[in-house]
Design goal:
Elements (H helix, E strand, L loop, with lengths): L3 E5 L6 H14 L4 E6 L8 E3 L5 E3 L2 E3 L5 H8 L7 E4 L7 H14 L3 E5 L10 H9 L2 E4 L12 E6 L2 E3 L13 E5 L1 H7 L15
Parallel strand pairs: 1-7, 1-8, 2-5, 2-6, 6-7
Antiparallel strand pairs: 3-4, 9-10, 9-11
Length: 204
């Protein structure tokens, strides 16, 4: 039986680079992967882009109101797809995650999702929370804080200052920048965990 995978990590844990490498490995063996990215992430447009400079176009840019299954079937028959890779999977809706699970279980196509577990206020994204609840396999991808400890949080920086409140989604490099921090550095630089969420907007 094919599975739904969730590979998560703080920012700069090489999620996109690992996704691109895995997709390339399929293609190298004459398999046919499909790359999907939620349209909420506009940083690289219609591409999956790694900070090390590797980039490739996505096959499906998925809108928040679109069906995951219908988008796949419109792109290519599921029988002709060997694996599905999802970048920035935290931006999937819970309903899209449920569909991804059904694609893996009922259609026999593995779905490999890469994304963040939590936002800059240490709260789960709805898509990430649903992936944590139903994925067959969950793997943490590790990176380090500036102090050398393992980073687990994503801190938001606006105007050169760490911030602890705001809309959940603000795309990296456009409305804000981010830094991966360990728990100690997060408390020292950002403050107490879990600031209030503003109703407007939604980010990383």
């Amino acid at each position: 039986m094919a599975k739904l995978y969730f590979r998560y990590g703080a920012m700069n844990s090489s999620k996109s680079a690992l996704l691109l490498t895995a997709a390339y490995n399929y293609e190298e063996r004459d398999q046919h992967p499909v790359l999907v990215k939620p349209g909420t992430d506009t940083k690289a447009g219609h591409s999956v882009a790694s900070r090390i400079g590797v980039e490739r176009p996505v096959d499906i840019l998925l809108g928040p109101d679109e069906s995951f299954l219908a988008a796949l079937e419109a792109h290519r028959p599921l029988a002709d797809i060997d694996a599905i890779f999802v970048d920035e999977a935290q931006f999937l809706t819970p309903a899209q995650v449920d569909e991804a699970f059904m694609v893996a279980v009922t259609r026999g196509v593995p779905v490999l999702c890469y994304g963040l577990r939590g936002d800059f206020m240490t709260r789960s994204f709805p898509g990430s929370l649903r992936l944590m609840e139903i994925s067959h396999s969950i793997e943490e991808l590790k990176t380090i804080c500036r102090c050398g400890s393992k980073a687990i949080f994503n801190a938001r920086i606006v105007g050169g200052e760490f911030v602890s409140h705001g809309a959940q989604v603000a795309i990296d490099g456009q409305q804000a920048t981010y830094e991966s921090l360990c728990g100690r550095c997060y408390l020292e630089k950002v403050g107490p965990l879990g600031g209030p969420v503003e109703a407007s907007g939604s980010s990383r």
